[in-house]
Amino acid sequence: MPAIRTEALTKDYSTGFWRPRPSRALENLTLEIAPGEIFGFLGPNGAGKTTTLKLLMQLIFPTSGRAEILGRPVGDVGVKRRLGYLPENPYFYDNLTAEELLVYYARVFGHHGSEAARRAGELLDLVGIGGERALQLRKFSKGMLQRIGLAQALLNDPDVVFLDEPMSGLDPLGRRDVRELILRLRERGCTVFFSSHILSDAESLCSRVAILSAGRLIATGTVSELLAFGVGGWELVMTNLAAATVARLGLRIARATEIAEGHYALELPIDAAPDGLLRELTAAGAALVSLNPIRPTLEDVFIKKVGGARERATFHHGAHRDHREKT
């Protein structure tokens, strides 16, 4: 049984004042996410990611289609007790301290007295909030508020967690901590569904990803499937390399980037023999720093897929407009 399943999920909003017209935010989204999976939901701003999460949490309702969580329709009260949710821009009672806020939420989930305080303390420790827990939330930075949001999403020890841009506002150390936390959730069998525009995090965390553009699903699969394009060339990084030597290489290299004086990154085409060029450059007095294959990243796939989807949408829109003008 899938942990999360959507079938032709569609959402229209009405836009305009005098003559409202439907605007489609999500169109026929069909997905299945397995239990214990970390699933990345990717797309540019306005792609429909937050709309999807709000539909799954039943904060808004679909125009058509259906969705299930843990085998039950979204909105089932028994299922909601097993969910955690971090919205993109969480809002808290900012006159409360971090500890007071989490104790309040712990009581909402049925913890009472010292048990609520203990559970709140555990979660604050887990997300790295120390002495700051006694401060009012209005004094917290965006990154610290994001940590509090993660803590409240995990208070009920959920089976499925929805995270909308969980890395937003975090510094590199905070992002590392959140990545480790998500991996720990997977280890205990929790299903994590998160949207993000930080593609390196999705690439390092997710077993599968989906790419959304203009409300439409344009690609889905494992990260290895989406990146299965093979080696695209070689990157040769050399030091003690004279500019004149680089200039003589000409068309034998695809690109040369000067990192620092005498320090170059040379991009070789896939059919070039890097070992022959390496011998030539070391004979000229240069030293090898690194030699690596150039492979596509998830960011490369994302840009290619989203760019292609936008071009197709522009073409179809233009063709439809031309047809209307002719008729």
Number of strands: 14
Low-confidence stretches: 315-327
> How many domains would you count in the coordinates?
2
Q: What percentage of amino acids are in beta strands?
A: 25-35%
Shape: globular
CATH architecture of the largest domain: 3-Layer(aba) Sandwich
Number of helices: 11
Strand order within the widest sheet? 6-7-8-3-9-10
CATH class of the largest domain: Alpha Beta
Biggest sheet record: 6 strands, mixed
Distance between the termini: 50 Å
Structural class by sheet pairing and helices: alpha/beta
Descriptive notes:
This protein is α/β, with parallel strands linked by helices and about 325 residues long. It has two domains: about 220 residues, P-loop containing nucleotide triphosphate hydrolases (Rossmann fold, 3-Layer(aba) Sandwich); about 60 residues, Alpha-Beta Plaits (2-Layer Sandwich). The chain is about 35% helix and about 30% strand. The chain is built from eleven helices and 14 strands. Strand 4 and strand 5 form a beta hairpin. It starts with a strand and ends with a helix. The C terminus is likely disordered.
